[in-house]
Write a structure and sequence with these properties.
Blueprint: H1 2-29, H2 35-62, H3 66-98
């Protein structure tokens, strides 16, 4: 019985010392932002605003987004490549028909 009483007293003392320490940690975690933090956040917001404005101006000038421009250019290049490949295949097929007597490797 004496051991249980000692254990209860020790547990109560430990919990009473732990709770105020946890409350102090929570209070320090919610401190006010410093002037440096406020200035950094303000500079970042100004930069983001400038980037947003720049992108909207670029979209107005070009009439489309840079990604859509790249997609259009890629589609044109693929069409061009397809026509070049067809031209090579047709030329190869025609040269084989024009020179039937040549030995093929």
């Amino acid at each position: 019985m004496n051991a249980i009483l000692r254990f209860t007293v020790v547990a109560a003392l430990l919990s009473s010392s732990i709770l105020p320490a946890a409350a102090k940690k929570k209070a320090t975690a919610e401190k006010k932002p410093s002037k440096v933090d406020i200035e950094a956040a303000t500079r970042l917001q100004i930069f983001l605003d400038q980037q947003t404005k720049f992108r909207s101006q670029l979209n107005n000038i070009l009439g489309q987004t840079p990604w859509s421009m790249l997609n259009d250019m890629t589609e044109r290049n693929l069409d061009l490549w397809k026509s070049v490949q067809e031209g090579f295949l047709n030329a190869a097929a025609n040269s084989g028909r024009l020179n039937p007597g040549k030995d093929k490797p």
